[in-house]
Amino acid sequence: MSKYAKQIADLQATRKAKADEMKALAEKAAEQGRTMDTGEQEQFDELKAAVAQIDKNIANLRDLEALEKADEADAATAKAADDSERRNSTVAVKRADPAEAKDTTSLKDGMGFARVARVKALAHIHRADPLAVAEQVYPGDEQTAKAVKREAVPAANTMSETWAGNLINEGGAAFADFVEYQRERSVLGQISDRLRRLPFDTPVLVQGSAGSASWVKEGEAKPVTQWTYTRTKLVPLKVAAIAAATKEMLKRASVAGDTLIRDELTRAVNAAVDGTFVSDAAAVADESPAGLRNGVAPITLTGDGSVAGVRCDIAQFLKELVGDNLSVSGSFWIMSEATAINLSLATNEVGAPAFPGVTPNGGTLAGLPVFTSQLVPDETEGSVVMLVKGDEIFLGDEDGIEVSISDQASIQMDDAPTQSSVTPTATTSVSMFQTNSVAFLVERFLNWQKRRASAVVWAHVNWDQCAS
């Protein structure tokens, strides 16, 4: 038995116990016809985080176990290989061999995704084995080779501890790498753990009005009250981007080419998600969710732009949230980087930073986290600043992306395409095959919704970095 087997078994037992606790919390709320309260949700989130960490630890132990077995196999079958044998070894690739990459040692965040996408594109172009292309273009990069390698997979069966896992996770590590690169640069990605997670298509009851009670004098009638509920659910909506690249560009084996694919797809997804999330746009049925500011009137601030005035404005934000019977616990700020810069540079009467917790990248303000994004608008009336009660926002997110690559497709080269398979009309399309190009399609499925409008407080601010 592997020395890691017992550790894995112990972790699996702990994971089952915590998963059972999560199920019990959810079932209790469901039986009572309600959603989990704040305490239950916090306990559920803590258990969920613990389960996720256990899964990572189990995965690490399995990797170590596999490495141990591989080392044992290598020791039993190892044979000497001189330098000339390695130099003369070649990889057969049909039609044209991609040039060797200039840099295979520096692998920054998101580069795993870019490399897998590029390898699959080149393999598709040359009708070659993706593994052979990966080994030729990125020699020594085992993660990329593993992501594109196709192995025989046995049928799913009850005797297999990792039932179909090797098939489901094919390429998973590299694509997850891209998701994490995208997540840390997205406001929604940064705050997603602070929102109330809700599985897609799961009905929940949202309270519209509260009941009331009164003190009753002896012998007098007790009052009758009522409250209202609305049933809602999050349906999966998708955000998508298509990027077309020429084969000539893809054949250039440089880190810059990989970075271009990664960065452009990341910016497109971020702009669509964050731009809608912080907006006041209305929901479009079966297409896009409403922005957090939709249906919420901005508050009117009374501060004069000085440091003291900014403090008054901050107090107004907080009191507005508390005035709606919401605790500031679990709340956070969303603002533009320009606004955060202004706050970080403002000084008090003795020249010290007036808001030392704020930096251009975020930080804290009035003890609450600050998240920044270039997609938060600076409008004519002033810069938009939002105070959001995170656990009052439902979020549905599949936590992954779908990627498709084709050099045979025909696409409408337009950033506002009119094609539809439901109501088709005649349009002009460009053939990827005829123009020697490859199209990359990225899709992500997610949705969000406020439990109630008072979960978001926002205003136009004019906070000047030169305030004193």
Description:
This protein has helices spanning 5-31, 38-77, 83-88, 111-126, 130-137, 142-148, 165-168, 172-184, 187-191, 247-250, 255-277, 307-323, 337-345; strands spanning 196-197, 204-209, 228-232, 237-246, 331-335, 358-359, 362-365, 368-372, 378-379, 382-389, 393-397, 402-406, 410-411, 430-431, 437-450, 456-461. With 468 residues, the chain is an alpha+beta fold. Among the domains are: 1-66; 237-290 and 400-413 and 430-447, Major capsid protein gp5 fold (2-Layer Sandwich), CATH 3.30.2400; 307-396 and 452-461, hypothetical protein PF0899 domain (hypothetical protein PF0899 fold). The strands form 4 sheets. Strands 5, 6, 7, 8, 9, 10 and 16 form a 7-stranded mixed β-sheet that branches. β7 (362-365) and β8 form a beta hairpin. α5 (130-137) runs antiparallel to α6 (142-148). The longest helix is centred in the first third of the chain and has 40 residues, at 38-77. The protein is globular and about 85 Å long. The model is unreliable at 77-106 and 151-173 (pLDDT under 50).
